[in-house]
Amino acid sequence: MWPARRIVGESLLSVLFGLLAAAAEAVDGGLVRIVAVGLAAGLLSPLRRVLPATVLLVIAVGSSAFMGLAPLVLIAAWSAGRRIDGVGRAAGTFALAYVLTLALLVLQELPHFSLSLLVFVTLWLLVAIVVPGLAGRYSAQRRALTDTLREYNAQLLRERAMVAGQARIRERQRIAQDMHDSLGHQLALISVHTGALEVDRELTGRQREAVGVLREASVAAMHELREVVGLLRDGTEAPGHAGSSQALEALGEEEAKAPSRGVAGIAGLVEASRGAGTAVELRSSGEPRPLAPTADHAAYRVAQEGLTNAHKHAPGATITIELRYEPDALVVEVANGPVPEAADAGRGAVSGGQGLTGLGERTRLIGGMVHAGPTADGGFRLAGVLPYTSPEGGFPDPPPDGAGAPTFVDPAGDFREQIPGGSLGEGDPVIDWNGVPKELAKAMSRDKKRSGIAIGCGVVALIGLVLVIAVVVGAFLFMGETDKAMIEPKQYDAVKVGQTEAEVRDRLPNGDSFLTDGLDKGAPPEPKGAKCLSLMSTEMGSSLDKEPVFRFCFKDGKLIEKKSFEVKS
Asked: Mean per-residue pLDDT for 119-137?
């Protein structure tokens, strides 16, 4: 069902084409013909949307006999190019319309047929039928491709949001595991020590009661920690706390591993990268201050993620890691220089793009933020701002003079959300991340689509070249036709009655052109027994529908009459 706006538009267009057709036929047609052609044009105009091929054939063939249908040929060809399904069917329809119309026009002009006439008609039909059809076809295909890319992009955005959500869930699970491994073991250790104190003979009854309360509190805290970890894992069952001996062993392992997973472990990452042949510089500024375990681990993860991305996407580039102890937060910054020309292969690294998503979630939960983006020299920079305290805690040490509570950018408005071209991740290239979204760029750069676009552009360019050549040749031939059919008024005045036919014809064109066809319609009667030559004037007539004509009549080898008059064009 068409909307009201389209119905009104089509109705107005039908009335317009009907009036144009009637006006064109009114020049030399009767009332019945004027009404019939006007109604036909008004009826065929809306039908082009339903029967594009049929309407194109009818209008193209009919325009050769009825000039009123000629304005409708352009819109019918455009509509057929947009709506005919299948390249073969469209090509066959246009070829049939072109050949039939060309044949009818040539048959009508057979008395004055010439090569120039054939070229002129061929060019006119190319402009009137083929060019609008190609333009309509291109418009339809471009619209279809745009809609497809828009739908594909929306699907990719939905999938990327799902992947980002899954990455956040996995990061929460890792954080839950860290909480369980650290706090769970610490609470288990407290429970073990308090249990040992309860059986100490030197304690008084009141002291033993207090130790029992402390042990029960630690056990209750461990149960609550398990529930919190379960919620943080989004329904995933949290592992049970270890027994006393297992807790002590795990605690020893945790303490042994702790330095390698915090700020102290960044030096180990640097040494490992240097051992792989990468130039890495580690800098530190400010007075070192203690961090909460989660923030300490996040600092290690920022350095680890930055080194990983640099190794993956900028192999051979120099890397700088800087630890800046600000008054209220530790800033961990990893920056790499531009990719050396000899190490270009790293640009094609593939990854899920979830590293920075998980890292952003980790830092957000501790009140910090992560910023990632290209640098001015063509490199890349990853920086994490990690508070010394958790969002609900206080400073572990008295804050410096003038330092208040730490304030950080809300996660929804951090720098990562403001970078165009989508969220960044460890799978994105180090350089040229901005610009066209990578999903659309990948979709448009597929081999099949690239080949199809190249073939389409080549065909369009070839058709355009042929049209240009045809227009140039047609213009040249048309100028030759005008030389055969037109004279200036001064040439007419220079010819005198009584001159020999040979002398006059030597000074005038031969008139053998399709342009002189119809000049005898409405002309004065020719002298009896005379042979006349009718030529057109280079000047305009007294009105738009009048054509000035110069006629020369010969008899017995002499010019017996010359006459100037106007006929309907």
From this structure: 80
